[in-house]
Design goal:
The chain has about 350 residues and is α/β, with parallel strands linked by helices. It has helices at about 25-35, 45-55, 65-70, 75-80, 120-130, 145-150, 150-155, 175-185, 245-255, 280-285, 305-315, 320-325; strands at about 85-90, 100-105, 110, 135-140, 160-165, 190, 210-215, 230-235, 235-240, 265-270, 290-295, 320, 330, 335-340. Helix content is about 30%, strand content about 20%.
Length: about 350
């Protein structure tokens, strides 16, 4: 695919001090599968994996870091966010899944989700076309395979400086493979994303504010609702990313944070256009001019649901879908927005 006039990318590798996860996860899972005959999907394996993932955040030998430890000041208050250049977003056509690439005014890169395992070619082809060999930030919104299916391959094949995930765990091989890839990637810093941390910002580009709006540390979420929601703001423009967050997570975030944090020109519509997401209160708070939906053609879920299509029309949001438009490119200069499609 080719997007004429999209911003030229300049990617810089970051040398981050060595950070290592634990080998306990791999050892225990191998022991479980070989000596007990249990699969990753067995209830006992799920309980064990949850315990192991929980241990990753508490063991003194593990270097999961709160963003506050990385910066002594709240970058949202300490750094003046000023428009300079363009912010470019690609919603990659990965079929029934989710993956977006952001390129900042300074050429910093951020990958949000990766699609299914067989989506690797679509993601890597775009990265290679843009001459991207390293990723400054990678975000895994939640553990479902249509969002992190090829994340392990991404981590193994591209230098990743910072990786953000949530405490939600899963028992799938794709999730385990992602953790094993992180464990082997000694130059990657891993961060736990929480909206109620001391510093709910992702340090990426000084011209861009990236604020985490969900999940919260003390809320009981299912996997979809555990998704990382965040707003990327550049000048007077903003993009809202939602993962697969449903109405429960949307309303929880709205009840705990200022409504002003949610206003965005562009909305990455939650859960592929499912009626379980994009509740009226959330759409009203975001009030987007442009709505982007990532989904596969003729998918088994009936996405996007007619209720969401109708709701987006009601608020006069111009809607672009990957099943109809292919990969979608959005370019922002801090005041205006241009949308291009590959089909």
């Amino acid at each position: 695919m080719c997007f004429d006039d999209c911003a030229t990318i300049c990617c810089m590798k970051m040398n981050i001090k060595m950070k290592t996860l634990t080998l306990l996860l791999t050892v225990c899972l191998v022991f479980l599968s070989v000596f007990t005959g249990c699969s990753f999907n067995d209830e006992y394996a799920g309980q064990l994996l949850n315990e192991l993932i929980s241990a990753l955040y508490t063991s003194p030998d593990i270097t999961f870091t709160d963003e506050t430890d990385r910066n002594n000041t709240d970058i949202g208050n300490a750094t003046p966010f000023t428009a300079d250049g363009t912010l470019t977003m690609y919603m990659i056509d990965v079929g029934q899944g989710d993956s977006s690439l952001l390129i900042s005014p300074a050429g910093k890169t951020m990958l949000i989700d990766s699609g299914e395992y067989d989506s690797y070619a679509a993601v890597s082809d775009l990265l290679d076309e843009l001459n991207i060999t390293s990723l400054d930030v990678v975000v895994a919104t939640h553990p479902h395979s249509d969002h992190i299916g090829c994340m392990g391959k991404i981590i193994k094949n591209y230098d990743v400086a910072s990786f953000y995930l949530t405490s939600a765990s899963h028992t799938t091989k794709s999730y385990t493979y992602m953790l094993e890839a992180l464990e082997a990637s000694t130059d990657t810093e891993v961060y736990l994303a929480e909206a109620d941390s001391n510093n709910p910002f992702i340090d990426w580009d000084s011209a861009v504010e990236v604020r985490i709006l969900s999940p919260f540390s003390n809320v009981d979420y299912d996997l979809n609702n555990s998704s990382i929601m965040m707003r990327v703001k550049f000048g007077n423009n903003a993009i809202m990313f939602t993962g697969d967050a449903e109405s429960y997570a949307e309303r929880t975030a709205l009840s705990r944070l200022s409504t002003s944090y949610f206003k965005a020109d562009v909305l990455k519509v939650g859960h592929h256009g499912s009626s379980n997401s994009s509740c009226d209160e959330f759409l009203s708070a975001v009030d987007p001019d442009i709505a982007l939906i990532s989904l596969g053609a003729d998918n088994d879920y009936g996405h996007p649901h007619r209720e969401i299509v109708s709701a987006l029309k009601k608020i006069n949001a111009q809607t672009y879908r990957t099943d109809e438009c292919g990969t979608i490119c959005v370019v922002m200069d801090g005041n205006s927005i241009e949308v291009k499609t590959s089909k």
